[in-house]
Amino acid sequence: MGGAGISVAIPLLMAQFQKSETDATQVLTLNFLFLSIGNIFWVPVAMKFGKRFSLLSSMAMQAGMLAWTAATPSFNGLLAARCLQGFAAAAGESIVPEIVADTTFVHQRGAMMSIYVVLISGGSAVGPLIAGFMTSSTAETWRSFSWLCCGVAIFNLVLILFLFPESNFDRPEFDLTVDQLRTLHHQHASKEADQTSSEERLEDVPEASSIPADYTISTPSIIEIMQPISYNVNVNFLKAFIEPVKLLVHPSVLWGILSYAVTLSPQVILM
Known about the structure:
Elements: H1 2-5, H2 10-17, H3 21-24, H4 26-49, H5 51-71, H6 75-94, H7 96-103, H8 106-137, H9 142-163, H10 178-194, H11 222-226, H12 237-246, H13 251-270
Helix pairs in contact: 4-5, 4-6, 4-12, 5-6, 5-9, 7-8, 8-9
């Protein structure tokens, strides 16, 4: 909402800062540019320090940049604030789909991602509507809208702080030998043979006693949930930056990038 909303104030920016239309529209183009660049940064940060830390940091940064946008007296300051605000907003685009994958089953992810896409797309549409009303009805025009977005960002920061626990989880993997798998299979086959046809058939899963108990599941305390950082010693920060670049050699990844760019570019142009 904060990124696209200011598009309706381009004529006012041209008059207030004595800039051409090309210069004034940079508050949009540079914002979207850094919105794309930020994804390269926030994903490795989320892998190393946790998704909770990434969202808290990015939302706090957004609130600060929106306040700077509303208060800056110069056009260069406005451009700088817009660039950093776009960079901070990138966390919402890249990390939220990972949170969906962490917290939902495979058959639920399509519905959850649909809701996410509708909401994030709706913000780009609702933002200019609200900004248009505030620009024409308030004394501070586009600055009032920036203050509103700053307040929304602070509200989101509070919600994330108290309602979003860390979703990163390293699930242990058990390496069972062929003999162990055969033993488990024969055990389950024998148990099924002993059951009568009138009994309900339970799902064919190993019993807890047959699986190595290398970890226990416990409910975290409030203090553990409220911790802002979940440091992962198993993640190489530099490698986490490089790994996504390797995916560019895959045609399916390039096709996804191209499809997203073709779909998004008309919306950017219309703004």
